[in-house]
Structure formats: C-alpha cells, structure tokens
Amino acid sequence: MKQTMERPSPSSPQTEQHSKVNSANRQAVNKRNWRSVHPQTPGVKGHSGGSNPGFRNPRKWALIWGSLGVIWIAIVWLTGRLLPAESTLTSLMDRNLAPTWEHPFGTDWLGRDMFMRTLKGLATSIQVGLLAACGGGFIALLMGLAAASGRMADRVISWIIDLFLSVPHLVSLVMLAFVFGGGLPGVALAIALTHWPNLARIVRAEMIQLRSAEYIHISRRLGHSRIRITVQHMLPHLIPQLFVGVLLIFPHAILHEAAITFLGLGLSPQQPAIGIILSESMRYLSAGMWWLAFFPGLALLLVVRAFDVLGGSLKTLTGTGNSREGV
Fold it and tell me: How far is CA 258 from CA 90, 184, 236, in A?
C-alpha cells in the first residue's frame, strides 16, 4: 500500500510579495511602538550610541559656564571688598618672601602680602569696570535712540561714531584721564567715553530694523507718540542686546584701566590696583622676585576671562547676535 506524502504547494510570486509587505508593516509598527516608549531627540544617538543629548545642548553648557563665571567674580569682588585694611600693611620683617602657605603670592619689598593686595586690586578693577561699562552702555543707548529719530540725526551720530572709532583707545584714554584728573571717577569716565561706539552702532542697527516693523507702523497710525512707541515697543527688544554688550565691555574696561594705571596716568599709587602692582613689580623682576608680577597678572587674566565667558554665555542664552564689543 503506497503512502502518499503531502508536499507543500509551491508559493506563487504574489504570495511571497504579500508576506514581505506584511513583514515590513510589522517592523514599522514595532519601531513606532519602540519610539513611543523610548523617545529620542532628533539627530542624537540612542542608547547604543552612548551619546547623552544633554551634553550637546549649547544652552545648557552656556548656563553652566555663565554660573561659574558669576560665582568666581562674586567671590573675588566680595573677598576684596570685605578684607580689612590691616591685611595690606607693611611688615619689614617679612620682606621679599617667596610664595609659601602663609603667603600664597609671596610678599613685596615692604613686606606686604601680595595675595591680599591682589584681591583688593581686583575688587577696585571690578568697580572701575562696573562704572565704565554702565556709563558706556547708557551713552550707547542714548546715541542709538537719537540716531533712529531721523535721517539728519542718523548722519550726525554715525559721523560721531566713526570719529571715535578712528582714534585708538589708549590714546583717547590717556588724554581723557589726564583731562579728568585721574583717580577712580576720572578713569571710569574716560573708559566710558571711549567704549560706547561699537555698542551704539548695534543699538542703532536694531532701532532701524524695529522702526520698519509692522506693529510700529500700526502704533503710529493709532496716534501714539514717539516716546511711547520707543519705551513700550522698541526698548524691550533692545534690553538683551544692551545687557550683553555692557557685559562684554567689562573685560576691555578692566584691561584698559590696568594699562593706563601701569603707565602712571590712572589711579593714585595709594590705591591698591593691579596696574600699580604690575608697575611697581617691574623694578624687582631682575632681582628674581618673579611672583610680584606673575600672580597678580594671572589673577587679572582669570577675572577678565570670567567676564568674557559670562558675556558669551548670555549671548547664547538670549540668542543675541553680534553684540561683541571690539577692542
């Protein structure tokens, strides 16, 4: 008795194509379900790639670095302001000491602790930078608003900006500091009067762009005055640009204050300032007392870098464009 074995009937090409389509649909559904359970940021690798989306977020890094810059500046300024006056008194028994645990920055030719003098000098430089940056930002705001008021005013303000930009900063600073008699107010005023043109040019460009906006035209047709339009509609758009620009003036103001003080045309020798410390230390570098200039100069660069990082971080967080103040 013959036994017949059942053989599977050969599948047709239509059946194979139908099974492939069903398999592709199942894979798409499974992939969609996986993404709904495990959401991913577009353009970022998943769990197998080992890349964390948080580390590719520039705003997160800007917030971290900006916070560190604020903390560092606040520590330096508060420490320098809260130090007692006795911390920088002379002690002839401790003259010309190299850096030790008791005196981290060493002592000078009068036995004064260089660490304490550096902190007080940095606090003075930050105070000068604050006054100069705020003054320069205020002048830039007034010039930018005046330039946007009309064509003739725009031509005059543009000519004044080009005139100030054509003169080197140090030359203007020396002349203005000499005219104002030096000292902390004179140096701050001289720096403010020489560091506003670039920021004023940015404010002017923003005002011209806002002046052609549709809602500004609507506000004018409603009969609103120019002062009301400027205060209510234009000024809020200028605050991020102005704030970032003022912060970016800080490092240049501090460096230029140290430069003209180093030349003897800034603060008085009785005031603790980094420029005075560096100027006095030049006479003792040949004797091997390198710490008198190295540590104060390094501390000044760290503070300047902190302000620069803070300004760049705020520029990233606020989304402002070319707010960088030129040297």
Answer: 23, 12, 34
